[in-house]
Amino acid sequence: MDEQTTEQELSLRDYVNVLIRRRTSVLLTFVIVCAIGASYTYFARPMYRASFRIVVRNERSARRGIDVPLEELFGISSNRDVQTQMQVLQGSVLRQRVAAAAGLDKGAAKLSVMQVGDTDVLEVSVDSRNREDAVRFAAALPDEFSKYIKESRSTAVKSALSFVDARLREEKENLSMAESALTAFRREAKVTDTTAESRRSVEALAEIESRLQQAEADVAGKEAELANLIEARNRLPEFIEKPITATNTTERKLVEDRIATLENQRAGLLIDFKPSHPRVQALDAQIKDLQDRLARLPDTVTTSTREPNPAVVDIEQKIANLRGAVSAARVTRSLLQMQSRQARQGMSRVAALEVAEAPLQRNVESAR
């Protein structure tokens, strides 16, 4: 026990002696570290942070039971788009406005915005080397943000109203021009009233025109269908390959008979010779080759024959029928065109004036 205590005391004494011998280096290192820490603490400028939170509310007028035109332009984040508001807060335009309102230089404060979880709350942080600058920037930000949003909405509303006013003035001008043209036409033509006969003529012409349009559409549709059928006919092959499958018994029987013959010859040679004899081995090689050939032979053999494509006959019949339908539709269209010309020629002056007046009347109605 005394020996262990002596060794421990000697060991501690050695450590102390080392520290005493190296006291200059230890003191110098300690002084340098303290000096560096004190210099950084003295010369480093502190960073101040001012934080607050903003709730992005979706206060739509519809919730208050009010139906307001252009409602989508009046709500801050009408779609609860928090990310959009974050971009607005971090935009250079808003930062410059806030800095000017707070009386700060550009870059005097740094702004960072984060969304709190999945909520509509934004946490805004303002960092600055000057405590007063951080406080002033943070205090001016909410008011400037609200003003910026209101100005943006106001600009959008003014643009929309300007567009509506311009369109209204344009429609009023169109209405005035249409009414003037209609009045001038009536004054020049001296139109008072139309008789029942002229009205029936106009109705008959309108019916013929409607049937003519239908006939033209029918002709166009049948011609397109005929073109598609002809294209499909050109893509069809004239002949088709028809596979025929048959058993391969004949060839397999020939190979099996040949193997049986060689095996009989081998049995005859084994009477006089050993299996290692060259003649016996030659027969074995032939038998082996025929057996391999027999194993490779398929059980069935497929051949193909060419025959006319029945689909060609069917589609050609359809083409012939459709060509007849196209010809009939063209004849109907020609008859209706002739009837339309006759109806126009047979209309009375009053009916002709009424037809010419109809577009002007429609212009007036549409302008109203």
In brief, what are we looking at here?
70% of the residues lie in helices and 11% in strands. It is mostly helical and 368 residues long.
Q: The biggest beta sheet, please?
A: 3 strands, antiparallel
H/E topology pattern: HHEHHEEHHEHHEHH
CATH fold category name of the domain at 48-157: TATA-Binding Protein
**Residue runs with pLDDT of under 50 for 5 or more positions:** 1-8, 60-71, 73-79
Topology, number of strands: 5
Shape: flat
Strand order of the largest sheet: 1-3-2
Q: How widely separated are the two ends?
A: 120 Å
Radius of gyration: 52 Å
User: Total helix count?
Assistant: 10
Strand content: 5-15%
The average pLDDT value, as a whole number, equals: 76
Question: Overview of this structure, please?
Answer:
The protein is mainly α and 368 residues long. Among the domains are: 42 residues; 110 residues, 2-Layer Sandwich (TATA-Binding Protein); 58 residues. Helix content is 70%, strand content 11%. It is built from ten helices and five strands; from the N terminus they run ααβααββααβααβαα. Strand 2 and strand 3 form a beta hairpin. The N terminus is likely disordered.
What is the secondary structure topology, with strand pairs?
Elements: H1 2-21, H2 23-43, E1 48-55, H3 82-90, H4 92-102, E2 110-115, E3 121-128, H5 131-189, H6 196-235, E4 239-247, H7 249-272, H8 278-296, E5 300-308, H9 310-346, H10 349-367
Antiparallel strand pairs: 1-3, 2-3, 4-5
Question: Which features does this protein show?
Answer:
mainly alpha, TATA-Binding Protein, two-stranded antiparallel sheet, disordered N terminus
